[in-house]
Amino acid sequence: MADIHAYEGAPEAEFGDYVALLKPRVMSLVVFTAFVGLWIAPVDVHPFVAFCAVLFIALGGGASGALNMWYDADIDAVMRRTQSRPIPSGRVAPGEALAVGLALSGIAVMMLGLVANWFAAAFLAFTIFFYAVVYTVWLKRSTPQNIVIGGAAGAFPPMIGWACATGGISIESLLMFALIFVWTPPHFWALALFMKEDYHKAGVPMLTVTHGRPATRRHIFAYTLVLAPFAIWLGLTSVGGPVYLAVSVVLNALFILGGWRILRRDEAAAEGDHYAVEKRFFKLSLIYLFLHFLALLVQRGMGAW
């Protein structure tokens, strides 16, 4: 825990600093995938109920981010990518971040139960616990499988959205989960390849630290191969169709090609061009997930099978 004296004389926190605690970029993914999961479900939901449900799922995601920043303040202070976050920069005290995270968690879960159903609310509570405790407290600092297992937290939102509409789980929601779950490791491992010093300095056992970069490259390519069947299988369910399948086939071909290019690289070549291939793959991974879920929305608008 950071020394409270370190925050004496620091700039006074502004509203934007508390917003930053919620990891808004990560929250945008939570909001979008949860909305898609809710909207493509085979149960009509009143637009106001849908709006409120997605809002409280977003608050739950933001609460997870605040709790993560509270616990990881020591790591964030070391890593170049995270040094400017509200806690290590001294703009928000750790106790304030903890209070924000706990308060928003309670509000999000209770309100989602009232506006949607208590199964979805319990699912949201479990997701917050999984990210804040299972991933942040336990996995992140103890195993190179941190991002593999911990990635489940980011894969739950479309299932929660689906549960808001249906009150349960189905093969469609499980495949949306699988799409994000299997996508997460190559996405973050690509980042770890070109942010190579951060995880070493912070002592986080990312795969690049514990097994080296050649092993990480092999894992990235292997995961692109495993990911493709799950992504395409989703297109063969009740929420799929020709639009989604066409988008998925093209994206997975590009993703596998990108993984192959990373596999074939050596460190000398990567350092020579400042990890250009790895950075392109990372950007592609963002587009990959967004377009898959956008295609589900388009397919829903056009009518599924």
Automatic annotation (TrEMBL):
Regions crossing the membrane: 26-42, 48-71, 92-112, 118-139, 146-169, 175-194, 220-237, 243-263, 284-302
GO cellular component: a single term: plasma membrane
GO biological process, one term: heme O biosynthetic process
The entry's keywords: Cell membrane, Heme biosynthesis, Membrane, Transferase, Transmembrane, Transmembrane helix
Entry's EC annotation: 2.5.1.141
A Pfam cross-reference name: UbiA
Disulfide bond keyword on record: no
InterPro entries: Protohaem_IX_farnesylTrfase, UbiA_prenyltransferase, UbiA_prenylTrfase_CS, UbiA_sf
Catalytic activity field: heme b + (2E,6E)-farnesyl diphosphate + H2O = Fe(II)-heme o + diphosphate
Functional pathway: Porphyrin-containing compound metabolism; heme O biosynthesis; heme O from protoheme: step 1/1
Location(s), subcellular: Cell membrane
Domain of life where this protein originates: Bacteria
Misc: Carbon 2 of the heme B porphyrin ring is defined according to the Fischer nomenclature.
Function (record text): Converts heme B (protoheme IX) to heme O by substitution of the vinyl group on carbon 2 of heme B porphyrin ring with a hydroxyethyl farnesyl side group.
UniProt similarity note: Belongs to the UbiA prenyltransferase family. Protoheme IX farnesyltransferase subfamily.
Protein name, per record: Protoheme IX farnesyltransferase
Organism, scientific name: Paracoccus zhejiangensis
Designated gene of the protein: ctaB
